[in-house]
Amino acid sequence: MAAPSDVCVTLEFSGGAELLFDKIKNHEVKLKKVDDKWTIKRLLVWIKDNMLKERPELFIQGDSIRPGILVLVNDADWELLGELNYEIQENDKITFISTLHGG
């Protein structure tokens, strides 16, 4: 069980994005509480450092998500919630869906 200071969230990857994460679509993660709040921007750095297995340029561009990847927080478009500045809450479900397809 997570310490009271941890923030537990579900990360989901689909539409091909799961291929960058050992082909695993759902991840339950515990984000350690520190001085700063957990935002999507901070989460992306954590994902890059702790979860991405290969080719981070296919998921992250600069300090944001690569264009072509839809981000949902609890099934709502992150653009409605402040994008990178959204403050992650306990039990949030954050979904990354790639809309890029090869041909």
Describe this structure in words.
The chain has 103 residues and is mainly beta. Helices cover 11% and strands 30% of the residues. It is built from 1 helix and 7 strands, in the order ββαβββββ. The strands form 2 sheets. Strands 2-1-7-5-6 form a 5-stranded mixed β-sheet, with no helix packed on it. Strand 5 (69-73) and strand 6 (76-77) form a beta hairpin. It starts with 6 loop residues before the first strand and ends in a 5-residue tail after the last strand.
Q: What's the arrangement of secondary structure elements?
A:
Blueprint: E1 7-14, E2 26-31, H1 40-50, E3 60-61, E4 64-65, E5 69-73, E6 76-77, E7 93-98
Parallel strand pairs: 1-7
Antiparallel strand pairs: 1-2, 3-4, 5-6, 5-7
Rg estimate, integer Å: 13 Å
Secondary-structure element series: EEHEEEEE
What is the overall silhouette? globular
Kindly estimate the percentage of residues that lie in beta strands according to DSSP: 25-35%
Spatial ordering of strands, largest sheet: 2-1-7-5-6
List the total number of helices: 1
Strand elements, count: 7
User: Which range best describes the helical content: under 10%, 10-25%, 25-40%, 40-55%, 55-70% or over 70%?
Assistant: 10-25%
Tell me about the largest β-sheet. Answer: 5 strands, mixed
